[in-house]
Structure formats: structure tokens, C-alpha cells
Amino acid sequence: MFFDQTIPPFIKILKNLSAILDKADAHATSRKFDVSILLNDRLAPDMFNLIRQVQIACDTAKLGAARLAGKTGPVNDDGEKTLSDLKERIKQTVAYLETFAPGDFAGAEERHITQPRWEGKYLLGEDYLLQHAIPNIYFHVSAAYAILRHNGVEVGKKDYLGELPFKH
Amino acid sequence: MFFDQTIPPFIKILKNLSAILDKADAHATSRKFDVSILLNDRLAPDMFNLIRQVQIACDTAKLGAARLAGKTGPVNDDGEKTLSDLKERIKQTVAYLETFAPGDFAGAEERHITQPRWEGKYLLGEDYLLQHAIPNIYFHVSAAYAILRHNGVEVGKKDYLGELPFKH
After folding, report:
1. A50-90: per-residue pLDDT in tens?
2. Could B121 and A166 be called an inter-chain contact, meaning their C-beta atoms sit closer than 8 Å?
3. Where are the beta strands (DSSP E) in chain B?
4. Nearest CB partner across the interface for B130, out of A5, A146, A157
5. pLDDT tens digits in sequence order for chain B, 168 residues long
6. Chain B closest CA to A148's CA: distance in Å?
7. Residue B162 Ramachandran class (φ > 0 left, ψ -120 to 50 alpha, else beta)
8. Is A12 within a domain?
9. CATH number where A34 lies
10. Is B58 inside a domain boundary?
11. Residue B168 falls within a domain, yes or no?
12. How many domains does chain B have?
């Protein structure tokens, strides 16, 4: 259950985010401006910029899976500056998520999940999954999308959701 | 499983959205402008405004639960114009979600889920849940949040996530 709710959906939304960044890149090229203007934009002065939204989306996926499985994920230095840096960050995160198997999440439901800023408090695995990791990853991907949409990049809901496995 | 992944998280995020709307109301009052300016704002000319984002968040929750349980949800006419209309829409949606019990979702995993715009195609219940309903509800709540944040309303991640059930 934890595998199904984290690994495939997180991989999918991160790949969708990478494709959205490609559209941002194409948009900047066609309008002849530097895509770094988009990467450094934000929706409010005290809100994170696009680079940080992508980094946090990746971290939410990486740390969400790692913590629920009782593992320690790889460390990232958050030094991404360019669009290809961000795409590489997403690619590495997807590759990390692909190392997980369903059995890695044995006992995740009752696992005590914490992080430094919680000062010793913890969430049970299921609460962490449903009330923290899942809402958070979609929040940051949506924020990245919103920054680009606000700047005129032609992305739509289909880019966010990606291909759906329709049956006939 | 389907109950846990839909009913409590959807109720929670809709209640968080209602509290975020209260903050928008207080912000407009303190700045002495009509809150309908916020309700009708959007991040791009061809993107939905705040009213529509709230309506779709409610519909995603209502229809997501109803379809997975093989039920037909109540019909809404989308006539909301004021902040209190939107809060009432959220309240009614939460009340509908509260009518569900875990047993309502028996067989949801393999259920064929469709909607008019899919022209006869369908998703299996689990795909619909993980690749459509969940990403969508958080997308629209995040979009509502982003519109307000962009307009200077003092909301933060804690308003979006709501209270977390920390243990010591």
C-alpha cells in the first residue's frame, strides 16, 4: 500500500514537472529571453522561487519514500542554478525512487517519522504519508506550475496530470 | 484503504481551504477592499478564478468519493458568488464526505470510473484515485492558495497543511 501511494505517483508527477520545465525552456527560447528569469521568479516576495519549488518537490519525494522505508536518502546540496541542473535533480530523484520495492515499506504504517524542525515530535507513518508527504509534493509541483502559468507559459492541467491509463 | 486515502484527507484539506478563505476575508476587511476582488482574481487570463478553483476542489472531493463508491453525488449549480457562498459549498461537501463509511468502498480498486468528457473510456478505481482525484484536489487547493498569496494575503504552508497529529 505505501509503495503504491508513493513510488509510482511521485515518479509520475516529477516526470510531469520535468516536461513542464521543458515547455518553460521552449517558451523562453521562442520569446528570446533567458529562462533563468522564469527559474528565479516567484508569486510573492516572501514565497519560494521556481528553483526552490522544484528542489522541495524533489526532496518531498526523496525524503517521503526514505523516511517511510526507514532509510536515509542521498544528500543534495541544492546548488541548482540552471534548467538543466533542475532536470538533472529530478532525474536523480526519480532514479532513487526507482530503487524501492514494495517490501521496503514493511511496517511503514506505524513507523515514527520525524525531521529536525519537529524538535523530537513525530508523526506515525500513515499520518505522515497522508497529511504531509502527499499534500506537500502536489503543493510544490502546483506552485512551480503556477509560477510558469502566471508568466504565460502554455501549460495546462494535462501537463500536470500527465498521461492517464485509460481503458476502453 | 480507499476510505483512508480519500475521506479524512479530503475533509481536512477542504477545511483548511475554508480557513484560508477566512484569512482572505480578514485581509480584505483590514485593507478596506471588497473581498470579491480576490474571489474573481486569477493567475493568468485563461486560468480559473478563485471561485472556480474552490468549486472544482469541492467537486473533485465529492465526485472522487462518489465515483469510487459507485454512488451519485449531490448536484451543485456552481452559483457561488460570495465568500460565504463558497464557505457554504465547502461545508456541504464536507457534510457529504462525512456520510461515507469504509465499507462503501468495497470493490473500488477494480471499479470502472468514467466521466462524460472521457467519451466512454474509463480508469480503474486505483488509477483514478492516485493519478486523478488526489493530484487534482491538491492542485486546485494550491491554486486557490497561490491566488491569495500572490495578492498579499498572509497565508503559509501551515494553513495549507493544517494541524498535524504530532506525537511525543
Report:
1. 999 999 999 999 999 999 999 999 999 999 999 999 999 99
2. yes
3. 112-113, 123-124
4. A5
5. 899 999 999 999 999 999 999 999 999 999 999 999 999 999 999 999 999 999 999 999 999 999 999 999 999 999 999 999 999 999 999 999 999 999 999 999 999 999 989 999 999 999 999 999 999 999 999 999 999 999 999 999 999 999 999 999
6. 10
7. left
8. yes
9. 1.20.120.450
10. yes
11. no
12. 1
**Domain housing A19:** 2-161
CB contact under 8 A, A150 and B150: yes
In this structure, what DSSP letter does residue A117 have?
G
B21: in domain? yes
Q: State yes or no: ipTM above 0.95.
A: yes
CA B145 to CA A148: how far, in whole Å? Answer: 16
Lookup: cell for A49: 522561487
Under 8 Å CB-to-CB from A12, ≥6 apart: which residues?
A162, B131
Out of A47, A123, A142, closest to residue B164 by CB = A123
| B117 contacts in chain A (CB < 8 Å) | none
Cell of A116: 529536525
Using a CB-CB distance cutoff of 8 angstroms, which residues of chain A are in contact with residue B122?
A: 166-168
Contact A149 B1 (CB under 8 A): no
Contact B152 A12 (CB under 8 A): no
In sequence order, the 6+-apart residues with CB closer than 8 A to the CB of B61 are B6, B10, B11, B13, B14, B93, B97, B137
